Amino acid sequence: MTVFFLSPAALAQSNCSLTVGWEAWFPYAYLDSKGKLIGFDVQLIEALGKESGCEIKFVGRAWSRLLKEVETGETQLAMGATKTAEREAYARFTQFYRMERLGVLVQKNKAQELKATSLK
């Protein structure tokens, strides 16, 4: 489950300018060969900004720094965040906008060699 989440500072702003943090995660947010930020999450935020009339400023960050900046209000919105109780203490989450089922990819000829006990 993936959502956006907002700092309380973002909710209190009336000038409708949002700093949106992102960490490279293909195909949701990444730089193309020309250095332009693209991806599903980026398109979604751009559409929301256009619809609401909000100015959007994207900032690339390491995830741990981005979380701290949302907590302090320096960055108002983080893309692709998983909802946790710890994060709910300082942020509000949107409704989920994508559901994912992730797994581990392994070569077919190596699958039998991989056992859960070998991952310790």
From TrEMBL:
Residue intervals of the Solute-binding protein family 3/N-terminal domain: 18-111
Tree of life domain: Bacteria
Matching InterPro entries: Solute-binding_3/MltF_N (IPR001638)
Gene3D superfamilies to which the protein is assigned, alphabetical: Periplasmic binding protein-like II
Keywords carried by this UniProt record: Signal
PANTHER family found in the cross-reference section: ARGININE-BINDING EXTRACELLULAR PROTEIN ARTP, MEMBRANE-BOUND LYTIC MUREIN TRANSGLYCOSYLASE F
Protein name: Solute-binding protein family 3/N-terminal domain-containing protein
Originating species: Elstera litoralis
